[in-house]
Amino acid sequence: TIGRFRGMLQKFCTCRAGAMIMDEILLGKPYSDDKYTYFRLCDFLNFLDRQRFREVDTGTVHLKLRDVGAENMGRRRLKGVREYLWRVPSFEEQTESFDVPADISTDATF
């Protein structure tokens, strides 16, 4: 379960349009800097619900977050609103594109 949970956390943090500035966390986006990704727990819970991930109940999500190295940052002020934030060490992202085989034409019609 912890492996699938970590995978869902990574997907939440890396496979979505992330925040450009920390204040955009209020829009439900995770924000990443060089070391950490910051997010609200409510946004991660909504993501798990949309993905139909039911292996961990809502009451124990914070415990699982700690198990994977996340930290509760307490309340932080964003655009004048105090929000509880969590942070997790940033995940590595793919930096290289996939190679396209030479025999595949880019002018293919579908």
Q: Would you give an account of this structure?
A:
By secondary structure, the chain is α+β, with helices and mostly antiparallel strands. The chain is 27% helix and 21% strand. It has helices at 2-14, 41-50, 61-67, and strands spanning 31-32, 36-39, 71-78, 81-89. A 4-stranded antiparallel beta sheet has the order 1-2-4-3. Strand 1 and strand 2 form a beta hairpin.
How are the elements arranged and paired?
Blueprint: H1 2-14, E1 31-32, E2 36-39, H2 41-50, H3 61-67, E3 71-78, E4 81-89
Antiparallel strand pairs: 1-2, 2-4, 3-4
State the main characteristics:
four-stranded antiparallel beta sheet, 4 strands, 110 residues, alpha+beta
Helices and strands, in N-to-C order?
HEEHHEE
Distance between the termini: 40 Å
Please estimate the helix content. Answer: 25-40%
Q: Strand tally, please?
A: 4
Biggest beta sheet attributes: 4 strands, antiparallel
Strand percentage: 15-25%
Shape: globular
Instruction: Indicate the structural class.
Output: alpha+beta
